[in-house]
Amino acid sequence: MAELVICKSCGFVMEKSKLHDKCPACGVMAKMFEPYVEKMSPRRKKILSLDLHPVLVHFPQAFIISLFVLSLIALATHGNARATVAAAITVLGIVLPFVIIGAFLAGLLDGKVRFRRVTTPILKQKMVLGALFFICSCGIFAIVVSQNMVSSLPIIIVVLLSLPGIGCAVLLGLLGSSILNAKFPG
Asked: What letters, b where the CB count within 10 A reaches 16 and e where it falls short, cover 72-86?
């Protein structure tokens, strides 16, 4: 197993043999590194290093922001342009609840591996926000599958449902980044 070092300045961990004159993360001199011993089992480290949850959460975030922006564009356009944008809104609105479910399941796996349980205070907050985000997405789903998205009223409803969804996505991101490097040893 390769010898590891950690930057005392920023906490970046890397193989000692790959360290040159500066920390690749923060740029401090190599003398700021000290030996590091991994405190996590190789199996847990491998699962967490897949970054399933951090990767999958970007889809719902991108979709909800895109729905909001596209809905505003649709309200400002008419005719074929509005129909084209409305088609994109429909596709994103149909897919959104499913990508939220995927991100939620990946979050459960991540929480279980990282903390050995999913009932920590921050994870509980994330589950509540995730449920609210999912409810907003189900409302959007219901609108896009049941209404003519070329009309202004359903587009306005999508705008209004997107706003709390964006709020949930932002808060989920902030909570997630606060625990990104936290994990139980072993």
From this structure: ebbeeeeeeebeebb
**What are the φ and ψ backbone dihedral angles of 110, each rounded to 5 degrees?**
-60, -45
Check: CB of residue 60 under 8 Å from CB of residue 103.
yes
- Residues whose CB falls within 8 Å of the CB of residue 47, separated by 6 or more in sequence, listed in order: 109, 113
Model confidence, pTM: 0.81
8 A C-beta contact, residue 106 and residue 56: yes
Q: What is the pLDDT of residues 113-136, one digit of tens each?
A: 888 889 999 999 999 999 999 999
**Tokens read off for 118:** 């999913």
The values of phi and psi at residue 13, to 5°, are -110, 135
What is the strand order of the sheet 33-36 is part of? 13-15, 4-7, 33-36
In the chain, at which residue ranges do the beta strands (DSSP E only) sit? 4-7, 13-15, 33-36
* Residue whose structure tokens are 């390769």: 2
Interatomic CA distance for residues 166 and 129, integer angstroms: 11
pLDDT single digits (tens) 92-102: 999 999 999 99
